[in-house]
Amino acid sequence: MDQKLRPARRRFLEHSALGLLGLATAPSWLSAMEMPFSKGGGGNQPNPSFKPDVELELIAREEGVSILDGPKTQVLRYTARLITGPKEVLTELPGSYLGPLIRLQQGQKVRIQFRHDLSEPTITHWHGLHVPAEMDGHPHQAISKGETRVYEFEVLNRAGFHIYHPHPHGATASQVYSGLAGGLIIHDPEEAKLGLPSGDYEIPLVLQDRSFDRNNQLVYASNMHERMLGFAGDQILVNGRLGGGIEVASRAYRLRIMNGSNARIFKLGWSDGSNVIVIGVDGGLLEAPERYPYVMLAPGERLDVWADFSGQSLGTVLTLGSLPFKGVLPKMATSMGGGRMGASKLPIGSAYPIVTFKVTQKMSDSPTLPMHLSRYQHYRLDQVMNKDRPIPIAIKESPMAMLLNGQPYGQGGFQPFERVPVNSLQLIEIFHDHAAAMEHGESSVSPEEALKKPSGMGGMGHQMMGMGGMNHEGGAREGGMGMMDGGMMMSMAHPIHLHGQQFQVISRTIGMGEEESYGTVKDGLISSGYKDTVLVMPGERVRLIKPFNDFKGVFMYHCHNLEHEDMGMMREFRCVARNKERD
Fold first, then answer.
1. pLDDT tens digits along 328-352
2. What's the rounded Cα separation, in Å, for the pair 494 and 94?
3. Which of 294, 423, 437, 536 could form a disulfide with 398 if both were Cys (CB 3.0 to 4.6 A apart)?
């Protein structure tokens, strides 16, 4: 493996007090799990015939910001300048390292001139937006320092909360962790008619976890174990700031919540035990409000929550926190590490506060929660082209491989089922292929064959349990771990993100042996509405219907555990003309 660090990465690791120690001890097989870092050279020019309603310049640069008391923290940060368009397009988050909030209207034509002043290549992806392939921020389009990548597209999405973040292969995780991320909100006429809370009463909440050294510098993954699980920090930041405390009035608010973490999964619930009222998800508003005892939120997912403080007395404090849960980490890691993800002192699945709301103002007027929110098309099985042959997305994880459909990113070319006709509706099934993981990524069956196995087995699965494996508490039984336990022992939760148009989840099936852990999360898994990222629990099969409309070209699908993505758990669909092998 090439251990020579790029300048920006070297500075980041030095500030993080990691140096070369972790890299020097990396196993020799690591090079087989990493694709070469995306090279620059993806600059382009504006299209003179494209007449934007909104134009802005977006810049990625290194800066020092105040996050903790004392020395400034060195981060990578997006800044923006509005060139053309309404002044409300850009909103800065006070005191935050996060990029400005970008607000757009459905139907607007948008030009974004992205350039960066980093020492390593990068590219920006518009997570959740339905844009042409060449405007999606593909890793191959990464630009070098001083270059400009011009994005031009029409806003086709309905109202919703989306993300912009870097997408260079091999460095997405470290660049996001060091600060490069921002929110993008789209509005439309249907939403405007509802009179939902806005202005001071609409609060974006970007949730991230970070670790700091004694000099206030970010600490990132120092070993392969932390990367295999996905890195998790030991402090929770809200909108890029520590200490999430918000003063509110006794009225209703709209909380726009994003999980901007690399790998941490949240189980969000209120401290008083009241229901979480969800009005929207990744792809926008639901048809009607839905009430949950808690909601699961994986990296890349978003929630639109109605929070009503009406009737609360002055001084009342309510906390939105993460509740205890199990099952998202490999059982091997649970038995060996006590449930901790990487080096985090804040264990995944433990209970901790995230943000507090203190009522400091009494108000008599408050909007009423609408009983009807939106209308959208519901996809049906009789509409898909491939009802009897769903496209497989087979998750394979082991100490030697992080793969989708038996291949790492950039190898093997497009498999037949990864070629999808444009303007088609496709059935997709995501599942864990434990049999292939047993072979460290060398599967003896194709993804299509693994797809036919019973739910939760993925080739072997449940019959491997009970052979010197795990007890119900997730600890190792006496006698150690049998060789046949490898697949299930390594299985963990994965947030799977599909680029392009959003999809609808139509079913979830949990395999045998996972019911106990699944019971701690299942009531907070939201399948309603349009999604672009879905959390797939160990042993679970998720079926969804996704449109591939309007645009030909290459669109990514990958795990949004960002360390997994960088390690190769990423593939591509090639959207092609109907009845043609090639474009």
1. 988 765 544 444 444 568 999 999 9
2. 32
3. 437
pTM greater than 0.70 (yes/no): yes
3-state helix, strand, coil in the chain (%, to 5): 15, 35, 50
Mark the ranges of the chain whose per-residue pLDDT is less than 50: 1-37, 335-342, 436-444, 455-487, 581-583
Q: How many domains does the chain have?
A: 3
For 240, the domain range is 199-361
Direct distance between the N- and C-terminal alpha carbons of the chain, in angstroms, rounded to an integer: 36
- Cβ proximity of 402 and 561 under 8 Å: no
Structure token pair of residue 304: 């639109």
* Sheet strand arrangement including 109-116: 73-84, 54-65, 109-116, 148-154
Q: What is the pLDDT of residue 364?
A: 86
Count of other CB atoms within 10 angstroms of residue 95: 11
- Phi and psi at residue 114, to the nearest 5°: -100, 125
In a domain, 426, yes or no: yes
Strand order in the sheet with 90-91: 90-91, 101-105, 182-187, 160-166, 124-127
Strand pairing category for 182-187 and 148-154: unpaired
User: Do residue 82 and residue 206 come from a single domain?
Assistant: no
- Phi/psi at 278 (5° precision): -100, 125
